[in-house]
Structures are given as structure tokens and as C-alpha cells.
Amino acid sequence: MHIKNLSIVLLVATFVLTGCAIGTPFDEAKSEIPGIAEGKARVFVYRTTNLVTLAFPRKFVVDGKHIANILAGNSYYVDFAPGDHAVTDGGGDFVLKLKLEAGQTKYVRYSVVGDSVAKGNTLIEDVPETQALDHLKSTQFLGSKTPTT
């Protein structure tokens, strides 16, 4: 019975870990990322790998529109019109306000945290470029995303 349980745990762990390996390592993909279209701003969204929160996706919602989910260890980008934008996880009370200018790139990190840090257990941060680029090295890049309707 013990071997059967261990086999199930290993099978699930393998599935979860390989499922998060979808995409291309960011460092390999970054040279293929196209430039920002004229009149647009770019937001990179990412979550660093955290085995404890691996199975808990978070929603990337901008101005009330669900763009995509973000899993631990993944990253992608979205291009937006310049202006003021509100980023949420679609359920918590936390709102990150971004002011985007044409040609600008911002980096948004999602973290699963305790309720004492952020209601709804999701912290969304505007991260400085140097710090974000260091974090992005450990992510799987999924390309660009567009809002869903």
C-alpha cells in the first residue's frame, strides 16, 4: 500500500512540474520578443516559481477585462493603449493602478501571500525593471496575450 501511495504522489508531482514547464525559458525567448507597436505600452506579467502555490492560478484582469490566468513560474506580455489602467485578480480587493505611456514597458508580479499581506491572498506589484528582469530569468515565457471577450 505504501508503494502505491508513493507512486501516486510521484505521478502527480511529475504532472504538475511538467505542466508548468510549458513555454520557453524567458532568457531564450527574450531576443524573439517583438518591439512595442507605435502608440502602445507593454506590460510583462509574471509569477516566480513557488512549489507551495503551484496549483493556484491567479487571474490577470485589467480594467474589468480578464486577459489570462498566470501560473507560478510563467510570464507573458500584453500591449495596451496608453493611459490609466486598473489591475486586479478579479476577486480580491487589491487594485494596482498603472499609468502607461506610449513606448513604455512595465513589469507586474503576482505573488500568493497570506491574508495579512493582501486580501484574497494575491499581491500584485509594479516591479522596477532591473528586479523584474532578474525574476523573469526563472520563468517560462508564454508569449503575448490579448483580452478575452
What does this structure look like?
- This protein is of the alpha+beta class.
- The chain is built from three helices and ten strands.
- The strands form two sheets. It has a six-stranded mixed beta sheet.
- β6 (83-88) and β7 (96-100) form a beta hairpin.
- The protein is globular and about 55 Å long.
Short précis:
By secondary structure, this protein is of the alpha+beta class.
List the keywords.
4-stranded antiparallel sheet, 3 helices, 20% helix, alpha+beta, 149 residues
N-to-C order of helices and strands = HEHEEEEEEEEHE
- How many helices? The count is 3
**Broad shape:** globular
Task: List how many beta strands DSSP finds.
Answer: 10
Task: Give the biggest sheet.
Answer: 6 strands, mixed
Helix/strand/pairing class, anyone?
Answer: alpha+beta
Binned, the helix content reads 10-25%
Tell me the fraction of residues in β-strands, as a range.
35-45%
**Which spans have pLDDT < 50 for at least 5 consecutive residues?**
14-20
In whole angstroms, the N-to-C terminal distance is 48 Å
Protein topology:
Layout lengths: L1 H18 L4 E2 H4 L11 E6 L11 E5 L2 E6 L3 E7 L2 E6 L7 E5 L4 E8 L9 E5 L2 H8 L3 E5 L5
Parallel strand pairs: 2-8, 5-10
Antiparallel strand pairs: 1-10, 2-5, 3-4, 3-6, 6-7, 8-9
